Amino acid sequence: MKGSLRYRIILALLVGVLGLVYVLPSFIAQDSPLRGALPDDEISLGLDLKGGVHLTLGVDIPEAIEYNLNQMGQDIRTTARDEGIAVLKPSVRGKDKLNFTLLKSDQRAKLDGLLNKHFNMLKVKARENISDGKVRYTLVMTPEYKREVSKLTVDQVLKTIRTRIDQFGVAEPDIRRQQGGRIQVQLPGLDDPQRAISVIGRTARLEFKIVDDAADLTKAKQGILAPGRELSTLKHYRMDGTYSTEPIVLHKDTVLSGEYITDAHVSYDNFGQPMISMNFNSRGARIFSRVTGENIGKRLAIVLDGEVYSAPSIKDKIPGGRASITGSFSDSEAADLALVLRSGSLPASVHVMEERTVGPSLGQESIDKGVTAALAGFVVVLLFMAVYYGFGGLVADTALVMNIVLIMAGLAGFGATLTLPGIAGIILTIGMAVDANVIIFERIREELRRGLTARAAIEEGYAKATLTILDANVTTVLAAIILYQFGTGPIRGFAVTLTLGILASMFTAIFVTRILFDMWAAKAKTGARLSI
């Protein structure tokens, strides 16, 4: 018994010291000499306590469907060409219909077979015979595929936004899907909402296009353009933070897209101006090498979200898969642009449907009220237990203090976020923690009334109450897990603190208090009366 008690005391002390080690960083100053010996983990405060930004974003699903159809139109044209079928001018009409022209009507059966084999997610809505034996096809997505595209679009937007926010440096963001293609974003502690919106919502669709320097800009500005050309705008950054622009004519076809980028970071040119250095994957490197080799002497426009940021001349073939965007942004813009390029482009644009900023003063007020409520409940419970159960109450109070320390240590160590409902979960845990002790103490009282000795009553009380306590707490943990899985940010905060509190209370109420009673029993004289 003594050997077992010694090991249990050592284990309890180790857990208690470890809990203090993880709790202290959240309550001591940054310049304290103790900080160097303690973990860096601190308790993260949620949006309702720390302040920050709450956004509801809407995803432009029709745009994603249009983009997907446009890509499939190009794939159909390429696949048909490989089969010897001449298909011209794939284009999207009305954002949900794909049109193209079959040059030879006698190849209609062959084209239909190709569509059924490789593009069965599309169905032919109309075939129209036009002049010279041509056939105009109109295709639409099947309802099942349209739903799949919508779901995948929101999933990809969610993943991309989460990647961007992780690189943005916001602690404990809450990002989740809502009904109707909406996404909720909560960013605790962020004090620059406009920059966050700019970074999160930027589509960042990067394209490389060949510049048509032979085009007549005067006619182009009047809308007179050669087939396969488009008029765009080249941006020039000024030192005062503004931009100048000039018209530029581009080939419509994209020779390389940003989907092949593996890394993007800020660097500086020989004049100290920021630029974005990019690396492509192996496939992108091969395409870039081929494009630059075939277009020596021409200019290559770097187009981001429809705007030309630079158009350098191609002086030689560029192998190795490295490129850069120069000359059109400030330091902060370059950093944000590199961030969104690293995280990938959004498959569709997003727009802010709701924006709320929670000020830190509101957060501090919430913290103060929550802490006051927790302290009041804590003190009342401590006094009640000490008065009603005597020595047993003091044992329960000791376990309760350790329980609170372990909860706070768990929040810091696991990187969980403390929210206002989370504080409510801690207050609830205070009552639940002593509830387990009440069950044990009442069982011990029953055994004492039956005439058992104090030592025997302690053993019987714990043996009979432990299973009941475990059953009750397991069901509560299961409910908390469901709350965490399906709840929003504040509800998840409540579930986290409730779960940590239950686990800590089971350890302290069953294990730690038993150690204290066994220590009393080991030193008590034969026949000593237990105050409980």
Write up what this structure looks like.
The structure is a single chain. Helices cover 52% and strands 22% of the residues. The chain is an alpha+beta fold. The protein folds into three domains: 2-50 and 359-523, Up-down Bundle (Multidrug efflux transporter AcrB transmembrane fold); 53-58 and 147-356, Gyrase A, domain 2; 62-145, Gyrase A, domain 2. The strands form six sheets. A four-stranded antiparallel beta sheet has the order 7-8-2-18. A hairpin with a 5-residue loop joins strand 5 and strand 6. It starts with a helix and ends in a 9-residue tail after the last helix. The model has no long low-confidence stretch (mean pLDDT 83).
What is the secondary structure topology, with strand pairs?
Blueprint: H1 2-23, E1 44-45, H2 47-50, E2 52-59, H3 61-82, E3 87-93, E4 97-102, H4 108-118, E5 122-129, E6 135-141, H5 143-168, E7 174-178, E8 182-188, H6 193-201, E9 206-210, H7 217-221, E10 229-237, E11 243-251, E12 256-257, E13 261-268, E14 274-280, H8 282-294, E15 300-304, E16 307-310, E17 322-326, H9 331-343, E18 350-358, H10 360-389, H11 391-413, E19 417-418, H12 420-449, H13 454-486, H14 489-523
Parallel strand pairs: 1-19
Antiparallel strand pairs: 2-8, 2-18, 3-4, 4-6, 5-6, 7-8, 9-12, 9-15, 10-11, 13-14, 14-17, 15-16
Helix pairs in contact: 1-11, 1-14, 3-5, 5-6, 5-9, 10-11, 10-12, 11-12, 11-14, 12-13, 12-14, 13-14
Q: Could you estimate the helical fraction of the residues in percent?
A: 40-55%
Spatial strand sequence of the major β-sheet: 7-8-2-18
| Shape verdict | elongated
Helix tally? 14
CATH topology of the largest domain: Gyrase A, domain 2
Query: Based on the structure given, which CATH architecture of the largest domain is correct?
Result: 2-Layer Sandwich
Give the averaged pLDDT, no decimals: 83
Low-confidence runs: none
Domain tally? 3
Tell me the fraction of residues in β-strands, as a range: 15-25%
